[in-house]
Amino acid sequence: MSALATDTAGSAPREETQPGLLERLGDRLNPLVVKEVRQGVRSRIFWVSFGLMLLACFIISMVAYVSTRDDGFSTQGQAFFFAFYVCLGMVHFFIIPYSAYRSLAREREDETWVLLILTGLGPRRILRGKVASFMVQAGLYASAVGPFLLFSYYLNGIDLPSILLVLGLGASWLFFLTVVAVCAATLADGRIGRAMVNLVLLGTLGLALLYGLIAAFALSEQGFRSIVRDDDFAIATSAFLWAMLSYGWLLFETAAARLSLATENYTHGPRLAFTLQTLISGVLLLGLWLTDVRSTGNATGASMLGCLHLAVIGIFVATDVDGQARALRAATRPWSLFRPGAVRGFRLVLLLLLGWTALCLVFFSMSTKSDASEAHLLTVLAAPAYAIFFLSLPLLVGRLPRSDRLAAPAVVRVLFFALVGLAGALLPLLALLFDQRADDPLVNLLNPFIGLDNFSDYDYSLNESKMNLGLLACVWVVATLAAFSADRALVEREHRAHAS
């Protein structure tokens, strides 16, 4: 015992303690969140914005106290709530998203992005940490303005559910704008391109701030009770929330794919998000249709909007670089449509277009019929034909010449919008040159705007549609031939890319 005491003299035994809950959560937390939050709260822009926001809220609260002190019953809560929310909106809808953009853009400009990649976190986790860190900073701002917003409730004129509704929709709008800003930081590599993206983002955030404040004023003015009684408003609000969440997820995956290496399966995330967005939207729309059967005109609108969405997003999916890394070439499984390559992206978009058309036909069969049902059916079937044709045409034009410049993704995307615009403007002019009406059905058969309008037109005096199945078949034949030719051109170019 004495020897043991002598050996351990001067050193006290250490007891091993189990880490606490906060320590365990800190170990699992994305380390980039901690780094960005610490760096953000130490920055000058944070304290300047935080101080000015609190000062503005304090001045508004003093004005509210003075203006309501002598009133027996005040009903000015809605006006002062909006005044407090303007202070919060300036930070949430402009400063936070732009700070997120500058944080990622600075990493790429200072060439410190490579150091972040070497940490082993990966692009997706790094971007997730960037977004989460600015959401934490936004929470700090909101916690400071929260007591002032609650103070407006005690001034009467606004109920607590209306406050919560405005704050909830504002939080989703904040998240969407932050993801958009982070995605914008990955778009350009050169100095001129970054300057252009910076200017466009500033204008976009300015408009987003204006729209967010207008929506907050309208919601707080009407009140929660009058809003929930309107079923159309509930549907529009749910659709708005779903659009922000789904498009935010899609943009996030796109940004992660742009920062990934060419040897990685970088297209899996964006294409999976694109597919699930389409499928879930169809399921939600089907559920809405089952609860309240709509007219055939709504099926036409669903077809046109869905095909427009799939065509615009699809041109970005179908303009991937030709070929793929050697490690990714062996797969010919069904889910290989999510792998890199323009041909696989093009085929995925075609499948989604056909699936959406089938769903819209189900909507049409469930709808209440009317005299113009035939015209609505023709429109439901014509919308995907136009989408397939104008999706295939720029791919075919850009890849037929053996020039890598014309086959570049940016050039093909510009061709898509240019060809759509030219078809919508030149075909009516051509009809006028031949002494025909500007909306002549034959001349404008391939016009995506007037053509769709002609298919949806119904002459009640003659009790017949303006277009017929023969003209619809012509559009589908042209679209099928264009899609087949574009697919063969993409396959041929991918084989050449693998051989080189």
UniProtKB/TrEMBL annotation:
Keyword Zinc-finger belongs to the record: no
TM region(s), chain numbering: 45-67, 79-101, 134-155, 161-187, 199-218, 233-252, 272-290, 302-321, 342-364, 376-398, 410-434, 467-486
Alphabetic keyword roster: Membrane, Transmembrane, Transmembrane helix
Descriptive protein name: ABC transporter permease
Organism name: Archangium lansingense
Taxonomic lineage of the native organism: Bacteria, Pseudomonadati, Myxococcota, Myxococcia, Myxococcales
